[in-house]
Amino acid sequence: MTAEIRTSDGELLSVKLKKVERRRRTTAFLLAAPLLFFIVFAYVIPIFQMLGRSIDNAEMNSFLTETHEVMQTWDGSEMPGEDVTSTFYYELKTAVENKYHGKIATRLNYEKGGFTSLIKKTSRKLKNFDENANFLDQFIDVHKKWGDIEYWQALKRGTDAYHFRKYLTTFDYEQKFDGSIERIPEKLRINVTLWLRTIFVAVGVTFCCFILAYPISHLLSVLPTRYSNLLMICVLLPFWTSLLVRTSSWMVLLQKQGVLNDTLVSLGFVADESRLELMYNMTGTFIAMTQILLPFMVLPLYSVMKTISPSLMRAATSMGATPFHAFRKIYFPLTYAGISAGSILVFVLAIGYYITPALVGGAKGILISNRIAYHMQQSLDWSLATAMATVLLIAVLVVYWLYNKIVGIDNMRLG
Amino acid sequence: MNSKKSDFVKFEQVDKSYDGKELVVKGLDLDIAEGEFLTLLGPSGSGKTTTLMMLAGFETPTNGEIYFDGRPINNIPPHKRGIGMVFQNYALFPHLSVYENLAFPLKVRKVDKSEIEERINKTLKMVSLTGFENRMPAQLSGGQQQRVAVARALVFDPKLVLMDEPLGALDKNLRESMQYELKHIHESLGVTVVYVTHDQGEALTMSNRIAVFNDGKVQQLSGPNELYETPVNSFVASFIGENNTFTGTVKEIASGSAKIETDSGETIVANPIAVSSSGEKSRISLRPERVSIDPNEQLENKFTSEIREIIYHGDHTRVRVNLLGNDDFILKVPNASSDLKLNVGDKLDLGWSSHDCRALDY
Q1: Candidates 3.40.50.300, 3.40.47.10, 3.30.70.100, 3.30.230.10; CATH matching B9-234
Q2: Is B9-234's fold the same as B243-360's?
């Protein structure tokens, strides 16, 4: 038992301390508040909404709630009964009256191609239906696709409140209407290729940046200040230029009639008719991304190397180590923190890179981010886009997790 | 075993310039004997560290040759010289434990594992750090890091160990105890040590010989007591220990004694060291402890001073007086003679022998 300690005015020490510290804590919180506010509203909430979108189908479910409920008793092995078709008729009729049948058509079309025209044609003919006759026959009369059981199966599946099928699509798999999961036909597979290419490019660019940045950073850290400042400006100069301008200038350099090819031809290294394909393929993406991301590797490396005393290398050589041995055993291990910080920075930036591959990548050089943008802007399949973005986010988190396991986040030094 | 070489390390007409405009080291000739503890002492910028770096191989002499154990070493890179070195900031490898730090020079030499362990144990024992093998350098105090650095420079049995202001970062008490420790290590191993410092106390405590550097040149090379008692020029006199000076002109000179008229007009009888003819300007140097207060005995120099300031220093009292126009004349009064009643403004009779007051260059 420890005796209660009181301050000289008789208050409990712990209470008094809290009182005195409260003001300081409040100030600290207020200082951090704008940042917290920004992170929550501009980062955390949008991300969770995005995650939700990739599985959310509630809107579709609300359009055809009763149809969906009735269809739960239908096992999908043979054509649906009148309970299903009649419910669907009445709900579609409400949809046409309230003009949201177009949305239903688009959504169902993701489940099975051909639904757009099917719903549109059916909606137009809905007023001719005899509400006392057999609904299924009338549906088939309007369009023979209604006789294909798969459209009814797609309708059942397409009205689920949520589903994970977009994640299958992300990896080029699909769920058949019988519930089995299969790879999609080979000529349609694109996402896995893009994932692999993205990882390859991100790893490759990280490695190239490391190889190029290491000597520069070392030079920066040992040069006298006036020279190192100049060199630092050279490293940072591209940083101060717009990303778009830099990428465009790479296009000027790399295209077939560009500066690089012209130089090689005029020097006689390359024949005029066999100019190098440096753009609209992986080479272009690689070169431009390496150049653009280089400063992100240089800065953490430089900040770590700056702290390594030159006397360590001297000490190692005075003890008989060759300069190479001293580098390998002493200098290099001391730069691990910088290498890992720079690598993770470049890798995370590279894995989500968008503008550069879009401009110089062409069809063979685009990355997963370009595919996400495509689904956001062109195909308007937002669920698929967000599913892909979620996978990307998880991939980055896994990298962080691995990094923390192997290196420890505390060892990261960014500058 | 051969008899010890007197020119184990030899600098021969060594010049060093960094910028091609100024010489940092000028025409250095220096012999270092085997087993010796030689200190290079001097103010910053005097060329002492440059000299050490040239010996270690991190700097190349601009001119001249350095010999180590009879071989010219100008073209031998540092890692082939086999010279141990202790750095100013210790230069311990922060990512390696104490054991691994010490093992580094041995592993480079491909010493086998059991011998590495044996040698490390022995060396750690010598610097009283047994049991610290697995600590990382950051977990050690400054003094312990210093010992590791010393151990690491000694563990591969180099014939020559260089130390570049190794105690500079330690506090006063630790520095003093480390001085004795280094001195004992040197005595027990018999290794040759070249030690750089700007701290004269350190140099006087540890060295066999001291080379006083100034302006790129060795001003005096001699043993500690000689250096203190018989400085050969006014730089050494003022750099080593405390010193009272008068400036004046030589009036009469004979062997062993010179009459010098100070700028204030009095005549001092002094020991001519760096003056040879009358009419020369001279700076007279006199150690505070060689001045007698109220002298009874027959002394050539007897003057009256006036007390300006009394500073209590524990074991002694320093008294600043005005003497022959010198307002900064310092006396050291041992506190045993505290019966002496000293007050600012009192007159005080002082005297000293002509032998103790040295007439040096101006």
Answers
A1: 3.40.50.300
A2: no
Residues in B whose CB is inside 8 Å of some CB of A read 56-58, 77-85, 87-89, 91, 93-95, 104-105, 108-109, 152-153, 156, 162
Contact A325 B56 (CB under 8 A): no
State whether A317 and B108 contact (CB < 8 Å).
no
Mapped onto helix, strand or coil, the DSSP state of residue B162 is: strand
- Which residues of chain B make contact with A309, given a CB cutoff of 8 A? 89, 91
**Across the interface, do A318 and B108 touch by the CB < 8 Å criterion?**
no
Chain B CB contacts of A314 under 8 Å are 56, 58, 78, 85, 87, 91
Domain ranges for chain B: 9-234, 243-360
How far is residue B259's CA from residue B359's CA, in Å, rounded to a whole number?
10
What is the separation of C-alpha B358 from the centre of its chain, rounded to a whole number of angstroms? 21
Residues of B within 8 A of A317 (CB-CB) are 57, 77-79
How do residues B13-45 score in pLDDT, each as one tens digit? Answer: 888 888 888 888 888 888 888 889 999 998 888
| Average pLDDT rounded to a whole number, residues B72-99 | 90
Give the span between the Cα atoms of B237 and B124, in whole angstroms. 40
Give the span between the Cα atoms of A113 and A359, in whole angstroms. 31
For residue B202, which of B164, B235, B247 has the smallest C-alpha distance? B164
pLDDT, position A409: 66
Beta strands in A256-337 (DSSP E): none
Quick check: A106 pLDDT over 70? yes
Provide the ipTM.
0.80
- Gap between the Cα atoms of B210 and B199, Å rounded: 12
d(CA B182, CA B188): 10
Instruction: Give domain B243-360's CATH architecture.
Output: Beta Barrel (2.40)
Q: pLDDT tens digit string along A114-156?
A: 888 888 888 888 888 888 888 888 888 888 888 888 888 888 8
- The percent of chain B in helix, strand and coil, each rounded to the nearest 5, is 25, 35, 35
Torsion of CA A195, A199, A201, A205, to 10 degrees: 160
**Chain A residues near residue B55 by CB distance under 8 angstroms:** none
> Does the structure show a pLDDT above 60 at A384?
yes
CA dist., res. A190 & res. A367, Å (int): 11
Q: b/e for A88-126, b at 16 or more Cβ within 10 A?
A: bbebbbebbeeeebeebbebbbbbbeebeebbeebbeeb
| Partner-chain contact B56 A319, CB within 8 Å | no
Cβ atoms of residues B197 and B165 within 8 Å = yes
Q: Which domains does chain A have, with CATH numbers?
A: 58-163 (no CATH), 191-411 (1.10.3720.10)
Cβ proximity of A350 and A206 under 8 Å: yes
**Which residue has tokens 């699509």?**
A169
- Residue the block writes with tokens 């010489």: B23
Report the gap between the CA of A327 and the closest CA in chain B (Å). Answer: 12
Q: Mean pLDDT, chain A, as a whole number?
A: 86
